[in-house]
Please model this.
Amino acid sequence: MKAYTIRDFEKQFPTDAACLDFLKNARWPEGVPCKACGKITKHHRITGRSCYSCDWCGTQVYPLAGTIFHKSPTSLRSWFHAMFLMASTRCGISAKQLERELGVTYKTAWRIFTQVRSLMDEKPRKLSGHVEVDETYIGGKRSGKRGRGAAGKTIAMGLAKRQGRIVVKVVPDVKGKTLMANVTKHVKPKSTVFTDDMSSYGGLRRAGFRHLKVKHSAKVYVDGIAHTNTVDGFWSLAKRGIDGTHHAVSPKYLQGYLNEYAFRYNHRHDDGPMFTTLLNRISSPAARPS
Model:
């Protein structure tokens, strides 16, 4: 796959008008339907406005309506540039960095940041085959108790198919009922599930899964094919990104940040650039602004 560079971006989207034309063609690839005429008609862009007018009757359509750009006074090209930056970095980019890169206020950068991240929130498909499950603790004070039960930290659960996709969820606790509910929701029955030796996973066999565990409590991290190195590798990447780029994330917004890292992980082997994947989601029903 040929890399999509900043030079490619500048060539494809040099102006707001080019971005608007792209959105129009993406939303109506077969042509723009006119509600008044009752058919697909030729439309022309109205200079100085983000809309197109039917050549026959003058009825106007707005490509930005119902998207994350709706009613935003910010340049459309700035939005596209932000999407390019967020899709092109491995460890993420902060809203503060977007503020500097785009030359906008922090409030505007934060809105762009959160809205673009909403495009990265995917409805997870059920995992199957060999699936690793492990939970981690994020945030809180650096000093004090570590590991499970660490005060002030937020718990996140990861379910990763080997050589495949990952599902990441913020959970309230590590009780068996909580963790088992997420496994049964996101993993197909009869799959092989790999975990550590925490007792909360004790009901996996009864739930119809093949369960292999590795005894982390005894400092054993690989036992034959039993290990959780895949999901642990994801946690390492996500934590480095949060610590190095964002420094701190509140529990309220943590799920959104983890969705962003999961999006990059799940699309790491795509044939096309992640930026293109985000662009294709703009006009989808799931991409409506919150």
In short: The longest strand covers residues 130-138. DSSP finds nine helices and ten strands in the chain. The chain has two domains: 6-119+270-287, 130-249. Residues 6-119+270-287 form one domain.
